[in-house]
Amino acid sequence: MTRSAPDRLLDVLGAFDQHHQALTLTELARRADLPLATAHRLVGALAGWGALERDDAGRYHVGLRLWELAALAPRGLGLRQAALPFLEDLYEATHENVHFAVRDGHDVVYIERLSGRSAVGVHSRVGARWPLHATGVGLVLLAHGEPGLQEAYAAESLAAFTPHTVTDPARLRRMLAEIRRSGIAVSERQITDDAVSVAAPVRGPRGDVIAAVSVVVPVAGARTPALIPAVQLAGRGISRALGWQPVSTPAPSPPPASA
Question: Is the pTM for the entire model greater than 0.85?
């Protein structure tokens, strides 16, 4: 099928990812599956608009114009601004990596990360995406997604990043049920062998889970039970800042006085 001009433009932009942040024109043409002349024309148009920038070595990068446009996304900058005070509080309480993320299809996308120099090394960065089952924030978002999403996800081939990554669909379903019950996700050594993530949901004004917050600490000496209240507090604080009101349970009526 012949691709339309908009499709080809999107293919050029889609050639960039977290592992390919700088590309030559030839690499762009190959990754976008385009003739070199076509790629040259499209890249020129994108660079002229500001969507791409060319460095002194002749390689292309995503341009600031796209960052400006992405900042208008309601699940991007606005959500991050509401969450940032609570993320900073969580970082001050732990001095470990703090993550804030949303779901995009079957992936989790990080929209904020706070990290100290002494914190455990992680592979996440703002704008990075990972499969939902492999991270604490992803597990939270998958657990609170619609049942159809969970079944479709569990039916896929689940990628393994370490020997501890959950790849068994039955085990994943049990984990998701426990996350919904407890309100917390603990992801241990799923992406790297040296880290554990503790994550909690963030709710929107209607009570649906729209994001997740986590803290990632070294697995050696991790005091997971002590981290859970801090992460849950951050999740609830962000949720209230976004307009969520927890449903209060009415106090039981006193028993009638005896005659």
Answer: no
